[in-house]
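By convention, the C-alpha cell line describes the chain's fold. To illustrate:
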Amino acid sequence: MRLSAFFSCFSLVALLACGSPEDEMSETSWAHSTVDRSSGTIPALIAYRELGFRTDYQKIRVCLQESPSYKGRNLLLESKLAYAAWIDATGRGSSTQWGLFDFQIENHCDMFDENYAAAVVIASQTKHDPSQSDDFTVINCTQRNCYPNAYTTGWGGPAAMSYTYGDKTGKTWSNISTYQPSVARLSPYLAWQSLETEFRLVANSTQSGNTQASALLSQYLALKSKAETVSYAELVAFNKKLASLKVDSKARYGIVNSGSSYQLQTPAFHTLLHEVGHQFGMMHAHVKSGYTDNGSAKGARGQIKDGFWTTNDATMAYDNSYFYLTADDRSGMQDLSAKLYPYLSARRVRK
C-alpha cells in the first residue's frame, strides 16, 4: 500500500505582510497533519528506525540542490540549521537522532531517486530536472520593478511511502520504504540570499542591530567553516541564539542582475525554515480541517515595539520573516511527535 503525500506552499503577497492593529489581540496558533497522514514526515522516518521497523534505508539521506545564488557551504549549513531546529522542537531531538542524517550537495535532485529520503531543492531557471514539477509563479523583473506582486516562494511536504501489511488484519506494517523523497523547494525566480549575506548587509549598515548582526556573522562563519562536520549541539545552540534575540530579516529587498535577467533578491532562511516545517508535518497555522490537529501556545501575543512588529506568530504562519521557531511552532511540533510515536509503535510487527 502507498501513503500519499500532501504539499503546502509559502506565498509572498506584496513582498511582506505587516501586523495590523487587530492582530495584537489575537492568540497565535499551530496546525499539523493528523497522525494517520504523517507517515511520510521526517519525524516518522526517524521513528521507524528508532522503533525497529524494517526499512529500505539505514540513513535519512538528504539531497541538497544548489542554485547560482544559494549554494555550497551556505546551503549546507542553513539546511542543517533548519533540520536541527525542527528536530529539537520535537522534544526528542538528540545527537543520536542527528546521526541518522546524511546531507549531500548534488547538481540536481531526482524526485524519484529512492536513495534519498528527503531533498532540499533550490530551483533554478537554468537547471531543471524533469522529475521536478515546475509550478512556481513566474516572476518578471526589470531594473526597477517586479511583477506580479503576489507569488509562491516555496513548496514543502513529506515523503511518499509504501509498506506491506504485517498480518491479515492490515493493522500492522512490516517493510517500510520511500519511493519519493520528502521535499522542500524554493522558487527558481528569486535570487536567494543566505544568512551570511543578510548578516553582512545589516552589520555594514547604520541600522539598529548592526553590532548584533556583526556578532552573529562571526558565529555563523565559524560554523560555516566546518559545515560538513558541525555537531547537532552547535546547530541547536546557534538556533537558540537566533530565537533569544528574536532575529528576523532586516535586510532590504532589491533587484539584482543575475547575468541573463533581473531577479528579486530575497532572504532564504525563513522560507527554508517554513518549508522544512512542512516536511516535518506542520501545516499553515490558520488551517483547520478534518486532516489537521490544532492548538496554540499559551500567552502568545504581538505588539509594536521600537517601530517593529514583534510577535510570537508561528513561522508556519504568514507574517514576519523569522529566522527561528516560535513558541507556537515548538508547541505544535511537540504535539505531533507525542502522538506519532504511539501511533507508529502500535503498527510495528511484533516478533
